[in-house]
From TrEMBL:
NCBIfam families: trpS
Highest taxon, organism lineage: Eukaryota
Gene Ontology BP, a term: translation
PANTHER family registered for this protein in UniProt: TRYPTOPHAN--TRNA LIGASE, TRYPTOPHANYL-TRNA SYNTHETASE
Principal localisation: cytoplasm
Name the record gives this protein: Tryptophan--tRNA ligase, cytoplasmic
Organism: Urochloa decumbens
Length: 426
C-alpha cells in the first residue's frame, strides 16, 4: 500500500489489525494491511473505488464528517428563494453539505455569498456527468441571485495528464464554451483559467495556504505518496484559493469576509477539508459545500466513465442516432432475462442505469414515480424505459448543442475578462 495511503483507508485497516503482533515479519503485516484495505472504499479527487464497485454514501458521509441534506433543508431553500427546489435536491443527488445552514442563515438575514465551482479541462467534449455541477450551479445562481467564479484548472491537467500546456489552454477555452452554453449570466459570472489568471492576490492566498499545510497533511487527506511528483503537492493551494474572496480583488474589494458556497461532487471534499482547516488560520471564513453523488457509467456503477471508451457515457456532441445506439446497447438493465420472468418479478431498480439516468434528467416527478412503479412491478419493459430515456437525453443534448453553437470566442473573452461585476448581487 505504501506510506501515502489515504487516511480513510489506513484508519479502518489499523483498527482491524491485531496490534499485539510484536515480532511478526513486516512483509506479513503489509500483506494483512493489503487484504483489509481491499475491503475499504477509497474516494479522493484522483481515485474512486469500492470493493463491489458501488459507493456506500452513508459510510462516506461518516468518514468525511460532512452532513446529510434532509427534507428540511430542501424546503428551506425553496422557501428562501421562492423557487421550486431543483430536482437534484428533491431526489437526493446533491445529498451532503458542510455548513450549508450557515449560508442559509446569513442569506435569510440579508447577507449575500458567492458561488465557486470548477472543471479540469482534459477532453474535447464533456459528457453528461460533467454537466451535473454546472446545471445545479446555474440553478443556485438564478435562485439566490449571487455571483459565481468558475475555475478551469488547465495547470492541473498538465500535471496529471500527458498533455502539453498549449493543449491544456485550448481545451480550457473549448470547455468554457460548453459551460457558458449552460446559460450562466455574464453579469454575475467570472470564468478564469489558472494558467492565465494566477498571480497577484490569488497567488498570495495560495502561499498563505501552502505555508500552513504539511506534507503529512496531504498524505492523510489526499493520499499523496512519496512517488508522486511535486506538482501534486503544489496544486492543492491553487484549488483552495478561489474559496477566499480576496483572491478576486476586481470582484470583491474590501469584502474579505464574504462567504463562499461550493457545489461539487463529493470526491472533491478532501481539497476543501484542507481549505476549511486553513481558512481561520489566515483570517478567512470557511467555505461551505454542497456535494453530489457520482454519475454512473452506462455499464453501471461498478464501471468508470472513460474518455478512452466513448460507449461508457453520453457526450454533449453525440447525435440522436448515437444516443439511441448507446442506450439500447450499453445501458445496464435491471430487467429480467425474459419477458415472462420480468412480468412476474419486475425490475431491480437499484442497478438499472436507465432509471438512474431518468432520476437525473427527467423533470416530472409524477412521471418518474409512475415509470419506477410500473417497471418495478413488471408492467413496463426495459425497452419502454430505454425509449423514454432516449427521448429525454436526445432533447437535452440537442438543446445544449444549439446553445453551444451560439457561443463565440468573443463571448468566452467576455466571461473571462478581469472586470468588476456591478450588478452581481442585483
Amino acid at each position: 500500500m505504501g506510506a501515502g495511503a489515504p487516511r480513510q483507508v489506513m484508519e479502518p485497516v489499523l483498527r482491524q489489525l491485531d496490534t499485539s503482533l510484536v515480532g511478526v515479519p513486516a512483509a506479513y503485516i503489509e500483506e494483512e494491511i493489503e487484504e483489509v484495505a481491499a475491503a475499504e472504499q477509497v474516494v479522493t479527487p484522483w481515485e474512486v473505488s469500492a470493493p463491489d464497485g458501488v459507493i456506500d454514501y452513508d459510510k462516506l458521509v461518516d468518514q468525511f464528517g460532512c452532513q446529510r441534506i434532509d427534507a428540511a433543508i430542501v424546503d428551506r431553500i425553496a422557501h428562501l428563494t421562492l423557487c421550486p427546489a431543483h430536482r437534484f435536491l428533491r431526489r437526493g443527488i446533491f445529498f451532503a453539505h458542510r455548513d450549508l445552514n450557515r449560508i442559509l442563515d446569513l442569506y435569510e438575514a440579508g447577507e449575500k455569498f458567492y458561488l465557486y465551482t470548477g472543471r479540469g479541462p482534459s477532453s474535447e467534449s464533456l459528457h453528461l456527468g460533467h454537466l451535473i455541477p454546472f446545471m445545479f450551479t446555474k440553478y443556485l445562481q438564478d435562485a439566490f441571485k449571487v455571483p459565481l467564479v468558475i475555475q478551469l484548472t488547465d495547470d492541473e491537467k498538465f500535471l496529471w495528464k500527458n498533455l502539453t500546456i498549449a493543449k491544456c489552454k485550448r481545451l480550457a477555452r473549448e470547455n468554457a464554451k460548453d459551460i457558458i452554453a449552460c446559460g450562466f449570466d455574464v453579469e454575475r459570472t467570472f470564468i478564469f483559467t489558472d494558467l492565465n489568471y494566477v498571480g497577484g492576490a490569488f497567488y498570495e492566498n495560495m502561499l498563505e495556504v501552502a505555508k500552513r499545510v504539511t506534507y503529512n497533511n496531504l498524505r492523510g487527506i489526499l493520499g499523496i505518496t512519496p512517488e508522486d511528483h511535486i506538482g501534486k503537492v503544489s496544486f492543492p493551494p491553487v484549488q483552495a484559493a478561489p474559496s477566499f474572496p480576496s483572491s478576486f480583488p476586481h470582484l470583491f474589494p474590501g469584502n474579505e469576509q464574504l462567504r463562499c458556497l461550493i457545489p461539487c461532487a463529493i470526491d472533491q471534499d478532501p481539497y476543501f477539508r484542507m481549505t476549511r482547516d486553513v481558512a481561520p488560520k489566515i483570517g478567512f471564513q470557511k467555505p461551505s459545500l454542497i456535494e453530489s453523488r457520482f454519475f454512473p457509467a452506462l455499464q453501471g456503477e461498478s464501471t468508470k466513465m472513460s474518455a478512452s471508451d466513448p460507449n461508457s457515457a453520453i457526450y454533449v456532441t453525440d447525435s440522436p442516432k448515437q444516443i439511441k445506439a448507446k442506450v439500447n446497447k450499453y445501458a445496464f438493465s435491471g430487467g429480467q432475462a425474459s419477458v415472462e420472468l420480468h412480468r412476474k418479478i419486475g425490475a431491480n431498480l437499484d442497478v438499472d442505469v436507465p432509471i438512474k439516468y431518468l432520476n437525473f434528467f427527467l423533470e416530472d416527478d409524477d412521471e418518474l414515480d409512475y415509470i419506477k412503479k410500473e417497471y418495478k412491478e413488471g408492467s413496463m419493459l426495459t425497452g419502454e424505459v430505454k425509449q423514454r430515456l432516449i427521448a429525454v437525453l436526445s432533447e437535452l443534448v440537442a438543446r445544449h448543442q444549439r446553445a453551444r453553437a451560439q457561443v463565440t470566442e468573443e463571448m468566452v473573452d467576455a466571461f473571462m475578462a478581469v472586470r468588476p461585476l456591478p450588478n452581481m448581487f442585483g
